[in-house]
Amino acid sequence: MQYNTQKEQLLMPEYGRGVQDMVDMAVALPDRQQRQRCAAAIVAVMRRVHVEQDNQDELEQKLWNHLARISRYRLDIDYPVEIVPAEEVSAHPAPLHYPMKKIRRRHYGALVESALNYAKSLPESPERQLLVQMVANQMKQDLFVWNRDAMDEELVAQDIMRYSDGELSLDTDNFRFAPVGMPSAAQLSGGKRKKRK
Predict the structure, then answer these.
(1) pLDDT tens digit string along 165-191?
(2) Helix (H) or strand (E) run with residue 89 in it
(3) Given CB 3.0 to 4.6 Å as the disulfide criterion, which of 17, 71, 112, 186 pairs with 75?
């Protein structure tokens, strides 16, 4: 008895070894017309794996490309859709560029820093103050996540002054921070509780 682990590795395991064997058989057929009919039958079998997909044109494109890939691009037939070349499929994407800039306080992150820099560029207005208040709530939430013992509203107000070099300030007399923390089970379920019998 031969185990699957001793057989050749599947190129697309989601279709199974049966589809792989059918594709290998289709590649070996000498008559082009037979290969064409066999390929259409294989795609019909492969379609059963993707029964939930709505967009039929996109599905057809995907299935015929998968058939070409399973055959290692050796199946000589007239494909009804444009097949993506093997080089393009196996090409690795370009590495992502990560911004390597220094963040003053890592627990706040770069977004808080850029939001405060943007707030500094705005003229004095209610919108500017609203933005500072929204950033302050986010900073308090970040402190809660990072270290609950260090969560202090006065610290947030001081950090806003430090970040903006004194240009921005939080009006702590007229501003109340939003509650922070993880939502309760009742809040997550919309306030509906199951009644016990």
Answers:
(1) 888 888 777 788 888 776 666 656 665
(2) helix 86-90
(3) 71
Q: How many residues does the chain have?
A: 197
Q: How far apart are CA 21 and CA 71, in angstroms?
A: 10
Residue type, 20: Q
- Asked whether the beta carbons of 91 and 136 are under 8 A apart, the reply is no
Q: Please, which pLDDT band fits residue 24 given cuts at 50, 70 and 90? A: very high
Residues 17 and 85 grouped into a single domain:
yes
Q: Which residue has the tokens 């009804």?
A: 80
The verdict on residue 136 lying in a domain is yes
Q: Residue 196 is which amino acid? A: R
Q: State whether 77 and 124 are in the same domain.
A: no
Distance of CA 61 to the CA centre of its chain: 23
Report if residue 191 sits inside a domain. no
State mean pLDDT over 76-102. 85
Are 83 and 100 within 8 A, CB to CB? no
Burial grade of 106 (CB within 10 A; 0-12, 13-18, 19 or more) = exposed
In the chain, the number of structural domains is 2
Q: Which residue in the block uniquely carries the two structure tokens 């939930």?
A: 52
Find, among 165, 167, 162, the residue nearest to 139 by Cα. 162
Which has more confidence, 50 or 47? Answer: 47
Spatial contact of 49 and 103, defined as CB atoms under 8 Å apart: no
The beta-strand segments (E) located in the chain are: none
Side chain identity at 107, as an amino acid letter? H
What predicted TM-score, i.e. pTM, was given to this entire model? 0.50
